[in-house]
Design a protein that fits this description.
Layout (H helix, E strand, L loop, with lengths): L9 H17 L37 H10 L1
Organism: Saccharicrinis carchari
Protein name: Endonuclease/Exonuclease/phosphatase family protein
Length: 74
């Protein structure tokens, strides 16, 4: 069974890189005259399916691929 700190499969790494590029081009950088605010629903954050990609029968649908950006940057 994979772990969150394992190296993701190449297709997941490719999607993460595409997302990083898109975020860098669409979200404004922090300036002295702006503030960046992010929110999320943390109610079910503790639940995770230990896979890189969810299958139709999996619950919850949150998988390692969704959390990799955070863990790779911290």
């Amino acid at each position: 069974m994979p772990k969150i700190y394992d190296t993701p499969p190449q297709y997941i790494a490719d999607e993460i890189n595409k997302l990083r590029i898109r975020l860098d081009t669409t979200i404004p950088g922090k300036q002295d005259d702006n503030i960046l605010i992010a929110t999320w629903n943390i109610r079910a954050f503790g639940k995770l399916t230990s896979k890189w990609v969810a299958e139709p029968k999996d619950s919850p649908k949150r998988v390692f691929a969704f959390l990799t950006l955070y863990y790779r940057n911290n």
